[in-house]
Amino acid sequence: MLVSELAANATQHSESGRNPNGQVRVEVTIEDGVINVDVVDEGSATSTPHVRARTDVPSPDRCGLQLVDQLADGWGH
From CA 77, how far away is CA 64, in angstroms rounded? Predict the structure, then answer.
């Protein structure tokens, strides 16, 4: 669920989604029994990702990183 939200965020809000040849990579590594998943996009020319405070969210479709933050905290990561 977290990976799909991050990938959706990357394609919707980064150069990866604005560029017809844009790319989003999902990188999975396992070390010492710990699985690490990174979603890598082409960034943004105007902003860096940040978790918005609930009062700053103008609509439900603009709270993806808040969802990721809360779920990861709830799962202890």
Answer: 17
Alpha carbons within 13 A on the beta-carbon side of 41: 20
Q: Tell me the average pLDDT across 25-40.
A: 92
pLDDT at 57 over 60: no
Q: What is the predicted pLDDT for the residue at 59?
A: 60
In sequence order, the 6+-apart residues with CB closer than 8 A to the CB of 54 are 63, 66
Name the residue among 24, 56, 23, 20 with its Cα closest to residue 37: 24
Helices (H), 1-77: 2-13, 15-18, 64-74
Residues in the chain: 77
Q: Is 9 left (phi over 0), alpha (psi -120 to 50) or beta?
A: alpha
Whole-model pTM: value is 0.68
